[in-house]
Write a structure and sequence with these properties.
The structure is a homodimer. Chain A is of the alpha+beta class. Chain A is built from ten helices and 15 strands. In chain A, helix 9 crosses helix 10. The relative contact order of chain A is 0.14. Chains A and B meet through helix 6, helix 8 and strand 13 of A and helix 6, helix 8 and strand 13 of B.
């Protein structure tokens, strides 16, 4: 097993599990001029052009002071992300503001960027903070109401729980485990083209699917490959995991051995599934295959294919 | 890595991912006299005493026919679990009925049992079906209302999604990934006593905690051990996974190497955390330690401790 640090992992913050239970500390930290706020507008993140002389990075997260955030009519409380040393970091949803860049009157080196695109250009630590921020704000956006009784709920503990004022139910952020797997039969591996985005761009990737309730990781790997490709899987080996904040998946990457080889695709979910020889997969990873395209190194699928290609 | 089949894994049903998208097929299957229903009453499961001559098991799931279920005023649609061959299996919440055993007039070999106790006495395949049933019914119970807009939602696809009639939002069952880990420092391992149940019964177990949003499995292992015990962890190795339907956790079991050894416990979450020598852990697994109690083989913690004890 490789303890590889994927894009969106590597968040350096101390999540402050004990401090966030203290409302007085949280309120003081939210006002502290040394605290920093990361604004997100409709799930796009504020980026600042990097200072290439100082930090070698082309982009970084656009942290603002509490005073700058107070200039905006944000209407939602900040979400406490954690600490760098003793300085608190918050994510702030500014979606209620129509034109936050104009209202903040920020220099032109600031802009709001799609979070997936930002993940590709940010340093690893910033991408990790972005993953946490985006998942948490997306969860609040979709969980304004108590699922038990339908009453509007309110965030507590710096946004790490929502509490219903009517029935008292506590609701915690959700993280959806996904099994993603490269299945091999000797010198060839099984890659698929899901209906939708992958089919439109002509890319093949590892098969994947949400882990069901009452199912182990290994069972989910076998079920998904059976459903999507009609192939039976024997031994399953864990490789590595990646948080994927669209909106809040935990990608659990595995390798597995095929027991059968005939492919029978699920015509609803999949546009195509095929066996690819190792040499072709190697060329595709390098971007040198004439027709086969596979995901880039931002995606765990790339590293699962690479680990299999390199094991020979 | 061992592909161990833990209690609550090993569900033999074909979950029928394609068929459950067909409302006509589902409606026919729900009435089909060959279909079987598993009643659950307030999250307790119907058990039947096993036929020791036939199947060697002391207990089995209490499957009933559609006609028996129709005798009850259940008020909730069944949840489609999957197929055995071409016969459909459903879970049926009968919580609205005050005394279902009386109303069903079942023989005395049937009873409703706590699901955790049932997991200890059922054959592995039945415990797997119980895990799926309990998690799915518990999810419906706590998700009657749309979390986006607060309107009462309705189940679809045999209970695998709930749809909001007001805003159209789709809500899927949640599965909460939990990192659970045995951390070692040479010939001793780190076990803890969480405040609450474990402290009351004087048991030590593997440390564990929910994986946060924007976090890999390996990051969660390190964070939880830091928070609960003040110990820093280096290398992390995946071992196995277990569905834990209370209400819908996915336990992701790991081993890890300690980088530091001084313990500083989280006094809110933990009653105690200690290093235990390998010999003491071995005795405790066998139930032969004078004072140290550890979880039994139903729990993944038992197998994580055993794998570490046996690696020497």
């Amino acid at each position: 097993m490789t303890d590889i640090v994927h894009t969106f992992a590597g968040n350096p913050l101390d999540r402050g599990d004990a401090l966030r239970r203290d409302p007085d500390w949280l309120a003081a930290a939210a006002r502290d001029p040394d605290s920093c706020y990361l604004p997100m507008w409709r799930l796009n993140v504020l980026l600042e052009d990097g200072d290439a002389y100082r930090d070698n990075d082309t982009h970084r997260l656009g942290w603002l002071s509490p005073a700058r955030i107070q200039e905006l009519d944000v209407r939602t409380p900040p979400v406490f992300l954690g600490l760098v040393g003793d300085r608190a970091r918050f994510a702030q949803d500014v979606s209620a503001v129509e034109e936050p860049l104009r209202d903040l009157d920020l220099p032109s080196r600031f802009r709001f960027e799609d979070s997936r695109a930002a993940g590709m250009v940010l340093p690893a630590t910033d991408a990790g903070i972005l993953a946490q921020s985006r998942s948490q704000l997306a969860w609040h956006e979709r969980h304004q109401f108590c699922s038990v009784c339908g009453t509007r709920s309110a965030p507590a503990r710096g946004g790490h729980v929502r509490v219903c004022p009517n029935c008292g139910a506590q609701h915690f952020p959700r993280t959806d485990p996904v099994a993603i797997m490269v299945i091999s039969d000797g010198d060839r591996c099984l890659l698929g083209q899901a209906a939708g985005r992958l089919a439109r761009i002509g890319m093949y990737s590892a098969l994947a699917g949400f882990i069901d309730q009452g199912e182990s990781i290994e069972e989910a790997v076998r079920r998904e490959v059976r459903e999507e490709a009609g192939v039976e899987v024997g031994d399953v080996r864990y490789h590595s995991s990646q948080p994927w904040p669209f909106p809040s998946s935990l990608m659990i990457g595995c390798h597995g051995d095929a027991l059968t080889t005939d492919i029978r695709i699920d015509p609803v979910e999949m546009a195509d599934v095929r066996w690819f020889p190792r040499d072709e997969a190697r060329l595709a990873l390098a971007g040198e295959h004439a027709t086969l395209k596979v995901p880039g190194p931002m995606a765990i699928a790339h590293h699962l294919i690479r680990a299999w290609v390199d094991e020979s």
